[in-house]
Every structure is written in structure tokens, then in C-alpha cells.
Amino acid sequence: MKNSEVDDTFESLLKAHARDPKHARRLETPDLSGKGTNARCGDAVEIEITLSSDGGSVEDAAFTAKACGLCVASASMLCELVHGRLSADLDALAEGLIAGQTTDTNAVWNALLAVLAAYPQRRRCIELPWSALQNALRQPRNQRMISP
Ligand SMILES: [Zn+2]
């Protein structure tokens, strides 16, 4: 049975992300922000992204969440995974996670997929930050400066 192995991976990642909460914060001037809520379990997460000056890549990513551990861990891993990525690739990345694709060899990505496979009934919790990212991508840039 591989369950304990998966749990170990998840446990160690969750602890690592809890120990180093640099992603769990607000960005001063995010270019993109998107929210996701899961009415069923009450999870709420917001992803914020700062882009490079040409808008081509992710300079910084952070999240705020009032959510269960799986959702928080997923959001933290998301921030780590999108850092430095081309902004044009973000939507495909989110689609890939939701589809469970293994095209990315990144260890964090693989751990995230293992967590998804281990908790099929909690799928929505793990996917929530990624749908928040997709919401962020569909917002106009600097939306925060327009809205109160
Ligand atoms: Zn949840």
C-alpha cells in the first residue's frame, strides 16, 4: 500500500510550506489577482501575482487563504511553481494540474499530483487555488487599482 508514502510526501511538504510561509502574504501591487471559493467546505483562497515589467513572466506570487490544510498546501505549492514562469504558460499549467498531467518533472508538481491521487474526494480543495489562478488570468491587469 502506497498510502503512507504519499502521506509522508504530503506531510513533509505541508510542514515545509508551513515552516516557510513566505508565499502566504499579500503583494503590494499585484498585476493579477483571482479568488476561488468552495461552498461545500468553506475554503476561500486568493492568488496574487506580480508580473515582470514587460508582463512576460511571473516575478512574484502569493496567496491568502481561509481554507483546509490541503488547499493551503496546494496554494503554497502553486506560488512556488509559477515563480519565474512565462505568464503565457500559466493557464496551461493550471489546466494540466486539473487534468492530472505529468508533463512537468518538477518535484513539487509531482508531489502535488500524488496528493491529488491520494485524496480524490478532496479534489476540489486541491484544485481551488488553481481555479483562482485561472480567475486571475481572466481579470484585466491592475484590476486592484481600478476597484476599491
Ligand atoms: Zn477544503
Would you identify the CATH architecture? Alpha-Beta Complex
Biggest sheet, spatial arrangement of strands: 1-2-3
Helical content class: 40-55%
Low-confidence regions: 143-148
Outline type: globular
Bound molecules: zinc ion
The total number of structural domains is: 1
Overall residue-averaged pLDDT value = 83
Biggest β-sheet description: 3 strands, antiparallel
The share of residues in extended strands comes to: 15-25%
Radius of gyration: 15 Å
Number of helices: 6
As for the CATH topology, it is: Sufe protein. Chain: A
SS-derived structural category? alpha+beta
What is the terminal separation in angstroms?
51 Å
Task: Outline the fold blueprint.
Layout: H1 3-19, E1 32-38, E2 43-51, E3 58-66, H2 69-82, H3 90-99, H4 107-118, H5 123-138, H6 143-146
Antiparallel strand pairs: 1-2, 2-3
Helix pairs in contact: 1-2, 1-4, 2-4, 2-5, 3-5
Zinc ion (ZN) binds at residues 38, 41, 43, 67-68, 70-71, 125.
